[in-house]
Amino acid sequence: MKTNQPPETSEKPLILVCNDDGIDAPGIYALAAAMDALGDVMVVAPIDEQSAVGHSITVRDPVRARPWRFELPSGAVPAYAITGTPADCAKLAVNHLLPRPPDLVVSGINKGPNTAVNVIYSGTVSAATEASILGLDAVAFSLCAWNPDDFEPAARYAEIVARKVLQDGIPPGIVFNVNIPALPFDAIKGIEVTRLAHSRWEESFVERIDPLNQPYYWLSGRFVNLDEGDHTDLEAIENGFVSLTPIQFDLTAHDLLAELRSWDWAIADRRR
Amino acid sequence: MKTNQPPETSEKPLILVCNDDGIDAPGIYALAAAMDALGDVMVVAPIDEQSAVGHSITVRDPVRARPWRFELPSGAVPAYAITGTPADCAKLAVNHLLPRPPDLVVSGINKGPNTAVNVIYSGTVSAATEASILGLDAVAFSLCAWNPDDFEPAARYAEIVARKVLQDGIPPGIVFNVNIPALPFDAIKGIEVTRLAHSRWEESFVERIDPLNQPYYWLSGRFVNLDEGDHTDLEAIENGFVSLTPIQFDLTAHDLLAELRSWDWAIADRRR
């Protein structure tokens, strides 16, 4: 029998916990503790912070998996720290480290929101997306505060959503992206099903000169919500709701196919 | 006047050329040479290969931009090699290095296909997606061969597509993802407008033991096309066509919103 693993067979559901803030982040500890009430937990997370890595995977280098001491109030749970990205964590856990397919993959709880256009840059979401690509139910959780001192309300909502998903499942090819406002539990008004707000970053690069007189650039920017419609994730959070956005990774713009087929592709089509 | 820049004003369109294989890759040279026939060209590309980085951006570290000698048959064009990801290249070029917004951003020509589920991991596509997020027309080009010896047919199709886009534009929020089969130009049957094929990787991690007796893991896998429908990118390429797939980055699963709103979110909704 391998050590540092959940049981090979169990009555309980198996829940894989990942993140992008790193295995030592308080958010993943709060999430694992919440999941511990629902099933067998295994933690596989990056050894270092991996923010804004998007859907990066490690293909040109090897990945290491270091057994990690991860102590919850109920006792230690099996855990690995990975020298890779959040998507690597999901891949390696599901394909190699786990004794059976997990019933649920959760990622987070991220420090800071993963809303609107930011989802595309999110490592937290990419771990869940990778799990969904592998055919599993997956949920990403983020707390809308940059320096949160209390993950407990978010963890309670993570438990509510995870319990529901373990019971009813998620449609194939869909990830639930959940953002929790930074409010006390009793001040949160409930869950609202939302869409990603239309938004963008007004960016600039700060140019500085290093001690060797060479320039370097640092990304800086201001987030702008361009969406005045209803039921966006940003609106829900501003109004004190947890936002739950179903996201998918078929990037085809299906609505545009018919129009594009009517375009004259000129020279290119001459041989048809 | 800044040096190493295209003209601040010009009759010609300005075309930004990026990639993920690195500024020294033959594919970006072939693409820049093709674009040189259509407008003023500027090349901004990673100094090293950045495959499979997905939509990664560099936020915790500075980025360097090194002026680079990039010689085309018509003479040198302004170019920078970037210590960052493909998405960083698009961001830094548009926000800082270019004297005016580009009329078109092209990325590639990638060595190897960016089709089906692989689009989500693609650095080549992410440079184009980032440009689209910034409000620009953008196209990603990939050649469906892992060790191509001839980028010329792909470059000719890049010119055809770019000419069309410069003339007619691309709907906002859409990127054209173009894959070119590894065939002689005269054997390619034309352009087909496609959707991304439903596919997955059957993956495994090769476990090896290093000289210090520690394990490491290397991602390995076999790509499987699960899609038997018509008009997929994989089918088009197999049949000798260039595939052109419109992709978008609003990840919301809009079709599912109504159903999810009918779910009983139990405790969570108790306060409504």
Key words describing this protein structure:
6 helices, 272 residues, two-stranded antiparallel ribbon, homodimer, alpha/beta
Q: Report the span from N to C terminus of chain A.
A: 61 Å
List the strand order in the largest sheet of chain A.
Answer: 3-6-2-1-7-8-9-13-10
User: CATH superfamily assignment of chain A?
Assistant: Survival protein SurE-like phosphatase/nucleotidase
Number of domains of chain A: 1
Question: Which protein chains are joined by the largest interface, and how many residues does each one contribute?
Answer: A-B, 82 and 82 residues
Figure out the total of helices of chain A: 6
The CATH first-level class of chain A comes to: Alpha Beta
Major sheet size, sense and barrel closure of chain A: 9 strands, mixed
Q: Percent of residues of chain A in beta strands?
A: 25-35%
Order of helices and strands of chain A: EHEEEEEHEHEHEEEEHEH
The Rg value of chain A, from CA coordinates, equals: 20 Å
Q: Quick check: average pLDDT of chain A?
A: 92
Helices and strands of chain A: which structural class?
alpha/beta
Number of strands of chain A: 13
CATH-defined topology of chain A: Stationary-phase Survival Protein Sure Homolog, Chain: A
